[in-house]
Amino acid sequence: MTTPPGDESVLHRPGAEESAALAPVRFKGRGMLLEQELYIERQADRELLGALRSRQHCHVLAPRQVGKSNLRVRATALLRSAGVRCVSLDLTGIASRSDEEAWYSSLIRRLTSALALPIDVDAFRTRAQGRPSERMIEFLHGEVLPRVSEPLVIFIDEIDLTLDLPFRDDFFRALLFMQDARADDAAWQRLTFCLLGVASPIDLVSDLVATPFNKSQPIELRDFTREELRRLRDGLLSIGGDTDALIDAIFAWTGGHPAFTQQICERLVLQGLDGRTEVERVADLADEMYLRRGRGVDPILADIDRRFSGADRETPQSSRLLKSYKDLLQGAQIRTDEANHLHFGLLIAGLVAERDGFFTPRNKIIATVFDEAWADEQLEQRVRSVIGWAQGREVTTEELKFLLAGREAAKKQEEERIQAELARERALSDVRQTRARYRWLQALVFVVVAFLSVLVLLFREEAADHEKVRQEAQRLREEAAAAQKQAKEEARKAREDAAQRRSEAERAQREAGDAAAKAKEAAEEAKTALAKAKAAGLSAADAKQKQRDAELLASVASFLEANASAKRQEAERATAEADLARLKADQAAAEAIERATRAENARKLADEIAANAKRDAEAALAAAKRSADEAAEAKRQAQLAQQEAAQAKLDKEAAEKARDKALDEVGAMSSAKQLKAEADGARAEAAEARRALESCRRQCPP
């Protein structure tokens, strides 16, 4: 189906989701995808849509048949649903490639027609001034943008067709100008360009400084991953068998190549497994559809072959591309961050892919069709073309020396390349060993740091515990001092109260004694009075009254004596209570002293633990410092190894430059015609030159 499900995968149109759910999934290996034909969303879909929504200029430069057009169509539909005006310009049908005026005029007319704008292009051409690229800028700014209120995205497809334009640098400078003008003119901020094609930026522009690709976001349109191919399950269920095993077999042959994957799935749906296992059936189809048909039948394989075949393709650059590709087939590892534009040329040609930071042969089909024998054949063809040029003509001594020098230079360059490769491998081996030691030291430092962190954590916990113990001891000392002070105060008060009560008891006792004495005296006086009364002859009533008074005084005296005795007992009890309070105070003071002693012992123990933890931490810090010094030394060794590797890389680049120079000299054999013209006056040496040519033919048979 053209629009896969997802947050933004299904275009907003009536019944789209229902029809997608009911109709069967179909595969299509070539051309634009139609309704119900499977579309697998990739990271590039999300990146392109996000960049264009944020009005960021983009470029999608990738090999053929990887889904650039479907990517553009899907992004266009989603942008239009969000209110963005989109237009696509295909450079395939643009007029004359040599007439600059006609080319820009055709481009402007197509843009006007696609936007359906009421603009008289002929009138604009009549009044516009300047170069055609400047008039295109004026047309967009003065005619198009004022009539389009929405954000505008212009897709320019088949941008690689500008490679044949002698004025292509002016076109790309115009795009760069419109990018830079955004900072000063808000109108340009509504215009966004997206370039699509099969070329690398370094091939499209000759001026590597004034290029729009430096400020444009690259969108990498990679082959499908194994996880993305899970979307194939629904379309392959009708075949039967193990669907996951079938997808694994397809991925093993295609490497996720979009067109190859869809083509094999389409054939499987039509023909089924045919009684074979999943692996056998996919292998049979790959052999039938690609391997046996050869490079000239399948359009994708034929396009790759055309990039290296033919007289116009026999250039020094193509020879270097073939040599790099042969190295990859032989197992060489080329990191993407260390690659040059030649390796990206292989990427654009569709021979290699970028996986896990390395360039590798793109898939099993391409590596089988374009194998080492094919690369050797192409390289040999270039040598034969040079030798063929020399056959059948009178070659001067200078020309023969030039040919032989080219062969010697090529041999020397190959030897230098091998030596550079060996030096690079040795340097890389040293770097790997140093990195391994450095990683080991890093692990050691990590362990030491982790151990130190634990020690610091424990030390902090011990310090916190020590602080808690110290605070508890201080609190206990303060409580003991307060209890001791309170006990002393209570004992003092008890003693004072006991003394006061004792004094009162003694006073009461004295008063009771005095009262008793007075009572006795009164009784005696009463008796004496009674006796005197009797002697005096007083009446019995008076005598009885006197007796009652005496008895009353005796009762008062007894009461006073009993009261004194009670106060004495109370004083004795107060004394006993004071003694008990003094005893309790002494006991509390003893307990407080004991608690203070325990707190002091705990404080001493905490101080000892803290001192031990501090000593352990200092020892660990010293060990960490030693480990850090060792890590620094290892890092220095690694830097030295990297410098050696960099020097080896420079040596390799120098060897490559020497090889390129030799190949350029061999590729420039056409200059020998000029040497031939200059040597027409030296016909006397023709016999010697012919003998030398016959010797060359025997050494270098065609």
Low-confidence stretches: 1-23, 666-684
C-alpha end-to-end distance: 54 Å
Architecture of the domain at 429-633 in CATH?
Orthogonal Bundle
Please, how many helices? 21
The run of helices and strands is HHEHEHHHEHEHEHHHHHHEHEEHHHHHH
- Taken as a percent bin, the fraction of beta residues is under 5%
Using only C-alpha atoms, the radius of gyration works out to: 55 Å
Concise structural overview:
The chain has 702 residues and is mainly alpha-helical.
How would you describe this structure to a colleague?
With 702 residues, the chain is mainly alpha-helical. Among the domains are: 43-221, P-loop containing nucleotide triphosphate hydrolases (Rossmann fold, 3-Layer(aba) Sandwich), CATH 3.40.50.300; 294-390, Arc Repressor Mutant, subunit A, CATH 1.10.10; 429-633, Helix Hairpins, CATH 1.10.287. The protein is built from 21 helices and 8 strands. The chain has helices at 16-22, 43-53, 68-81, 100-115, 121-127, 132-144, 168-180, 201-204, 233-236, 243-254, 258-271, 278-291, 299-306, 316-329, 341-349, 364-369, 372-390, 397-536, 540-667, 672-678, 686-699, and strands at residues 58-61, 85-90, 152-157, 191-197, 217-218, 334-335, 352-355, 358-361. The strands form 2 sheets. A 5-stranded parallel sheet has the order 2-3-4-1-5, sandwiched between helices. Strand 7 (352-355) and strand 8 form a beta hairpin. Helix 2 (43-53) crosses helix 3 (68-81) and helix 14 crosses helix 15 (341-349).
